[in-house]
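A reminder from the course coordinator: this example appears on the midterm review sheet, so study it carefully.

Given structure:
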């Protein structure tokens, strides 16, 4: 129980952080979540709690990589499912190239109007 409370505190603190993000036209991992690129089912954990979790029902490979590597949205079950199924929709080389691209965002072109709160991702 204490571990879960600590985890929730850390998640809430991380959600308060503001990050500069590149323009989505230059960095495909910054695209907003839309029904055309990701389908998410939100579920409440229990009736007495206001916290919720989500299940990704379908997504583009870029959105799957974004959630796989997101610093706040790490879910071991999702990682396991992704690693078991990714070969059905991309090759290991394509996955490697997408991971390299994910961890090397463009630096130029970031300005103050592109500031976003990562809790909305």
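Designed residues:
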């Amino acid at each position: 129980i204490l571990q879960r409370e600590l985890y929730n505190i850390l998640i809430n603190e991380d959600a308060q952080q503001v990050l500069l993000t590149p323009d989505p036209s230059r960095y495909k991992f910054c695209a907003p979540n839309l029904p055309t690129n990701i389908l998410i089912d939100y579920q409440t954990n229990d009736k007495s709690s206001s916290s919720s979790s989500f299940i990704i029902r379908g997504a583009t490979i870029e959105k799957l990589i974004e959630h796989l590597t997101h610093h706040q949205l790490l879910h071991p079950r999702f990682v396991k499912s992704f690693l078991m199924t990714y070969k059905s929709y991309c090759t290991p080389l394509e996955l490697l190239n997408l991971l390299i691209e994910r961890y090397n965002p463009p630096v130029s072109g970031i300005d103050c109007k592109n500031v976003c709160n990562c809790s909305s991702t």
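The chain has four helices and four strands. The first helix runs from residue 2 to 16.
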